[in-house]
């Protein structure tokens, strides 16, 4: 799921007509249809249904609309906050973000800001790392804004949800589970595990997943970031759970859906309070 899909979905929901929505978005109707179809496939449900020549939201589409509009509203708030960090003509914004957000989300945020402010000469600094590093950088004013997981007890920071990532299992090619389309946590827990380290915002989520299934993972290795985890998986060091993002899917490993898993990794925009 990406920001373009959310924008296309919300526009189509308001226009209720593919051709008019595509014209408003300045894209072709087939491009819009493909984006909506991909979004429906990812969510596992239909968001629109035909009503004469128009389309209207289904029950599930109306539910998703609330979250999509909220996400776009939060993104707009982020762009406005970046505006406040710069003068009317120029400025510099340092952004800290976790590794998985560098491929699509961060470029979309920056592009949105620059498109809305074509006359501003704003420079951006891009810094990636684990959640703990980003939160520390926000406090020390190394970064103006961060995009990472949320950690409890951060009373001096503000967190705004802006995106979410589905979690999938990664196993080596040729592994006994590799030919499967999906796997249960209990089946995955049989094998040596590669985990994120304790500074990662994803670590407590994965810990909780195993705990709720009554499984104790055999943790053999711990890493800082997603590509390092999948790199070890690809070489046969173990199996792991990672976010489902294109950069990960392109690596040489097998990726499986996790059955009966309701968790999704939330990504937050983080800033210091009262600034």
Work out the strand percent: 25-35%
Shape from CA axes?
A: globular
Question: What is the alpha-carbon Rg in Å?
Answer: 20 Å
**What class would the helix/strand composition place it in?**
alpha/beta
Supply the CATH superfamily name of the largest domain.
Periplasmic binding protein-like II
Largest sheet: 8 strands, mixed
Uncertain segments are none
The tally of strands reads 12
The overall pLDDT, averaged over residues, is: 88
Strand and helix order: HHHEEHEHEHEEEHEHEHEHEE
CATH-defined architecture of the largest domain: 3-Layer(aba) Sandwich
How many helix segments?
A: 10
Q: Any key phrases for this structure?
A:
D-Maltodextrin-Binding Protein, domain 2, 26% strand, alpha/beta, 3 domains, 8-stranded mixed sheet, 40% helix, 275 residues, two-stranded antiparallel sheet, single chain, Arc Repressor Mutant, subunit A, globular
Which helices and strands appear, and what pairs or packs with what?
Blueprint: H1 3-15, H2 18-25, H3 29-43, E1 48-51, E2 54-57, H4 59-84, E3 90-97, H5 105-116, E4 121-128, H6 131-139, E5 145-148, E6 157-171, E7 182-183, H7 185-188, E8 193-196, H8 203-212, E9 219-223, H9 226-234, E10 240-243, H10 246-249, E11 254-258, E12 264-272
Parallel strand pairs: 3-4, 3-5, 7-11, 8-9
Antiparallel strand pairs: 1-2, 5-12, 6-10, 6-11, 6-12
Helix pairs in contact: 1-2, 1-3, 1-4, 2-3, 4-5
